[in-house]
Each structure stands twice: as structure tokens, then as C-alpha cells.
Amino acid sequence: MSTTPNYLTPQGYAALTNERNQLLKVERPKTVEIVSWAASNGDRSENGDYIYGKRRLREIDRRLRFLSKRLELAKIVDSSAQMTQDQVFFGATVTLVDQEGHEQTLRIVGVDETHLGPNYISWVSPIARALIKSREGDSVTFESPSGIRTVEIIRVTYAG
Question: What is the DSSP string of 5-44?
Fold first, then answer.
């Protein structure tokens, strides 16, 4: 069974790794300590520290499993070495202007890192798919929630 790689920028990979390490080395041991202490106090059925600690432990373990799977599938794409600097690929920061003259700057990143920065969009989003392989000066049309939109690419940059 082949699984789609989880494309990530180096910064996205580092952020997910840091989150996993924080959960594994800091939050989980602290929560286990609270649950153990609460369990030693006797009746667990009405012990809030025990009940909420166990719930938090399940949340941490669920997130750790998710992060481990995503990092295992990770394919790091270092866009700073991109040879064609005026063409849009994964990791590009693209400045667009729409038909009304509104400028917008977007960065195309992995699915798991869209929350890491303002205006980060997933490489599988409709606008990113339309932008991929286009160049500065090109007009691109795509389907948005508000209907068909056309934008012009005015600048493409890659993080260094």
C-alpha cells in the first residue's frame, strides 16, 4: 500500500518535531505524575484530577500518534535551493493581485503546517494547485468559495 508523502518545509518539519518532543518529554510526564498522584488519593470516581488527567493523557497520546505518523511520512522540501526563482512550486511565497486590484501574499506549504503562519496555504488547496508551475506575470484562474477568480502573479520568492 503506497501512502502519499507528507510534504513539509524544513520549518514545518522542525515545528512538528518540536511539538512532538514537547508533548513526549514535558507534558506527558507531567500529566502522568498528576494522574499517579490523584490515583493514590483513593476513590477515582469523583477525583477531578484523576478524571481530567486521564482525559488529557488520552489527548496527548492521540496527538503523539498523529505526529509520529505524519513525521514518518514526511518528505522535506527545501525550496531555498529552487533553481527557477520566478516559477511557483512548493514552498514559494507568491504575491497576487486580483481583478479589483487587491494584493495578497500567500506561502504554499504542507497540509500539516498551514496553521504555522498567516496566509499559509496547503499545496493541495485549489488556489495552490492553480498556481503551481505558473510564473511571475501569469494570470491564473481557479475555483474559490465565492466563485471563479482570476489573479495575476506579481512576485514569487523562496525563503532563504
Answer: -EEE-HHHHHHHHHHHHHIIIIIHHHHHHHHHHHHTTS--
**What string of DSSP letters covers 96-148?**
EEETT--EEEEEEE-GGGGGGSTTEEETTSHHHHHHTT-BTT-EEEEEETTEE
Q: Which domains are seen in the chain, by residue range?
A: 6-76 (1.10.287.180), 79-158 (3.10.50.30)
Looking from the CA of 71 toward its CB, the CA atoms found within 13 Å total 18
Report the Cα 39 to chain-centroid distance in Å.
37
Is the CA virtual torsion 31, 34, 36, 42 positive or negative? negative
**pLDDT tens track for 92-137:** 999 999 989 999 999 999 999 999 889 999 999 999 999 999 999 9
- Give the integer Cα–Cα distance in Å for 142 and 1: 32
- pTM (2 d.p.): 0.84
